[in-house]
Design a protein that fits this description.
single chain; alpha+beta; seven-stranded antiparallel β-sheet
């Protein structure tokens, strides 16, 4: 199931009639910091962080990434990705793999390669 307002895309994976995983592409104004997106918007707690990198913050149930775009579709904006496990937790290595692959895929999508609208 896919939904979201302009600049925000949310997809939910439903298993046995329950949302299992949510993925989000979130467009923000340029200069928005990864930590602000992770902590204030998505409620990641600093005591739950398993790994921090330049473009990722990962816990055992939530991962947030910053997308590197060659040419962002909307000038003056940046993209962030989110993977959220809705029930329970998984290994941080699995969350890292999910967010890096998702973020890499978004970086080659039309949102990151299209000319300015």
């Amino acid at each position: 199931m896919k939904s979201g307002p302009s600049g925000f895309t949310r997809c939910r994976l439903v298993v046995d009639r329950q949302v299992a995983v949510t993925s989000i592409i979130d467009q923000r104004q340029s200069g928005t910091r990864l930590m602000n997106v992770a902590y204030s918007t998505y409620g990641m707690r600093s005591d739950r962080i398993k790994k921090k990198a330049h473009n990722y913050i990962i816990s055992d149930s939530l991962a947030v990434g910053h997308v590197s775009c060659s040419e962002l579709q909307q000038e003056g904006h940046e993209l962030f990705t989110v993977i959220r496990k809705e029930h329970g937790t998984v290994d941080a290595t699995a969350m890292e793999k999910a967010i890096t692959e998702f973020t890499d895929a978004v970086s080659t999508s039309r949102q990151c390669t299209a000319s300015h609208a």
